[in-house]
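<goal> How does this chain fold?
<body> The protein record starts here
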Amino acid sequence: MIQVAARQNYDINGLIKEIAQPNVKVVIFFFSVEYERFEPHKAIKQAFPQATCIASSMIGGWAPAMAVEKGIIAMSLSSDEVADVFVSFKEGVKSTPDKAAHQAIEELKNKLGYRKVNPHAYLGIVLFDGLCRGDDIMQALTLESTLNMPFVGGAAADELAFAKTLVGLDEKISDDGLVLLIMKMNIPFYCDHFVHYTPRHTAMMVTKVEPKRRIIWEFNNEPAAQYYAKLAGITRIDQLNTTVFESNPLGVSSGGLLYCRAIHSVIDGTGLVCFASVTMGTVVHMLKAGDIIAHTQSALQKVKRYIPDLQGVILFNCVLRLLEMQRLNKIDTFRNIFSGLRFIGFNTYGEELFVHHNQTLTAVFFGGGRGD
């Protein structure tokens, strides 16, 4: 059975007791970065020595009992849900994220016997340092044909200090790390990403860019910041701020799906620094927000058509969505959408499913199985 627990203080023993069950195979937990000094990863691994335990720091999280502003959240999955586990932990993602990703991929391929597997039976979870180039990690995973299962996850976060984010495996934890977990599942699951924005009519082409620095320098051969400001109805570049960027992200359409490219800041008066990479020649739209609550409710109903006996969820929710919900006073309304389910989640510095997203919710949903 899936078990979940959350605490807004460091009651690690109470949390462990709540997720304890026979034959725990995997523990996934998220924690406020200031809790590092308590070494929660060591306590959880000691409590579940036979389990694979993976972790990420967060800027708040989600659980049935509460939306956690600061604290710790955990989920355990037993042998009823998970038949087998394969995991890799690598460091060095700040300097060479692609190298770390390829090393982790090679280790997992070796553990899987270099064979392709049934993607309907195997699920990947990816967690990494939120201050690294997650685009490179996700590109390496997507281009790897042997690991042909979906990888869903999030980039670790801190309290908007952008100073130190953590990921961990068992008794190891790092502010420069990557965890790839593959589970052979005994229960059905479904992954998706959800964007409550829609494109405005005007399209623009990226005509000058620095992908490695995530900088767009020009749209339609004009300075990007000035072009963007005009579309946003802003008369001066110095008026472009977090509120404007949050309300007017960029979007890329591909295969009928919409992918957000949130903007971080203006650089050198003409460029736009994004939270995810955009390539030369990409056609983008400025987006407008829809109803984040109605969209999430609709998305969950769609999922229930795929998995009628839905029992659990892991949510990877963008910190920009969190800020929007705080501004709208919709935190508890959002959490209540998932009432009746065993769920956990954290607010991220990037959401992962095939690519590195922003202003998005990625999630994995678990159906019932032999343990229910």
